[in-house]
Amino acid sequence: xxxxxxxxxxxxxxxxxxxLIPDEKMAKIRKNMAEKCPITKKMDEEMxxxxxxxxxxxxxxxxxxxxTIKRSSGTRMWDMDNNEYIDWLMSSGACIxxxxxxxxxxxxxxxxxxxxxxxxxNNEWEIKSIEMIKKHVPSIELMQYFQSxxxxxxxxxxxxxxxxxxxxxxxxxxxxxxxxxxxxxxxxVPFSGAMEAHGIPSGVYKNTIVVxxxxxxxxxxxxxxxxxxxxxxxxxxxxxxxxxAGGIATKKDWLKSIRExxxxxxxxxxxxxxxxxxxxxxxxxxxxxxIKPDLSVFGKLLTHGFPSSGAVGGRKDVMNNITIDVEPGGxxxxxxxxLRGNPLTAAATYxxxxxxxxxxxxxxxxxxxxxxVKKLNQIFENDGRPYFAHNIESIVHFETFSPLALDLSDLxxxxxxxxxxxxxxxxxxxxxxxxxxxxxGNRGFTCMQHTIEDNDRFIxxxxxxxxxxx
Length: 470
Ligand SMILES: Cc1ncc(COP(=O)(O)O)c(C=O)c1O
Known about the structure:
By secondary structure, this protein is an alpha/beta fold. 41% of the residues lie in helices and 15% in strands. It folds into 2 domains: 3-100 and 360-468, Aspartate Aminotransferase, domain 1 (Alpha-Beta Complex); 115-358, Aspartate Aminotransferase, domain 2 (3-Layer(aba) Sandwich). The strands form 4 sheets. A 7-stranded mixed sheet has the order 4-10-9-8-7-5-6, with helices on both faces. A 4-stranded mixed sheet has the order 1-2-3-15. The protein has a 3-stranded antiparallel sheet with strand order 13-14-16. The longest helix has 22 residues, at 361-382. The protein starts with a helix and ends with a helix. The structure holds pyridoxal-5'-phosphate. Residues 92, 148-150, 153, 176-178, 239, 272, 274-275, 299, 309-310 line the site of pyridoxal-5'-phosphate (PLP).
């Protein structure tokens, strides 16, 4: 769906009343869940005694309790009571072959027979996997593994600073790049500033400049303003889909304009491909949008969720600024990490990409996403709702109350956003109770194993949800 159409539909949603699934219906859903999941509910109580906050993940559905998963296979996961769920969170996008995909598992086990992750020295899978990445992503001349997307983003901005000898980084409002202190500004909600950044001294992000999505003029003003050595802009860091996997739409030529401005002002362009890498196609967002970044950051699908999943790659001259042994007086970016590029991580990368090629994973996942979007739009239309669904390859957005549709530079909108958020959270819980796992109740990732029948189950559950919304 094009930017203009999304904007128009979002405007209608913004102007429509926020309708929550009523409290009494939610109470019934929570009661049914508790009856259906006695052991799982108990596990949630136990978990809270050991894990701070009861879960280690932002995107788990928390209402009425966080599921403890006992088994996963294909598109399915089972809780401790053996209730089955169809998963459209897919490990926050890290999974496209399907859970516990036997061919991938078997190849990793073969590697594990000979090598454990703790060898510390080089292993042949680093060469094999990086060769495979280079085949699909030509901007990668050299690469290094890191231990998560967060760590890789952190390394990328450090390398860029060392190379350019400039300190500032430009990021975009609402973009999430992991939890590194310097990037914890305007993380999810545009214009939320340091709202989510407790525990980080403000000095830590004083060199992070935030520019609104799609605002090429303001981007140029910032680049023009900060050009000096040291105080200037080293790099523009962008999630090619803007923010929240494309939750806020971006204009067609937005990335092209960013590339042109980076060239004009001699600033590096870093693509954060933690979500888009290998999900928008084997060549990631850079092939999809035909824009060549100087550095790229990968995570998640890089290893199909096998630990440790993170990498930075790109131009040889820039990547060569990484040093493992610090030279006194040198200009090198120091990086470290005991488990980086270990044999299991590197083999998981190689085999994930190889199996994705062999199984045409993108094509299948995209077809499934398109089927789901078509069916969702049909039921929204049949029910006379202003809601709409759209997809970018295997990333599905279904907008109902769209908390991100607001401009938070107007503080009055914070309360409205929270109410919209609650409306969407209730949808997430109502779907979960029917065995459907989504991302936040308004997003999903498909894998190559999601079938038409899976989608029909989703639609049936959503039709029930529509009946509950006044
Ligand atoms: C675009 C983007 N960058 C970075 C990260 C951080 O990756 P990780 O969770 O592996 O630290 C995420 C995680 O969701 C992400 O979506």
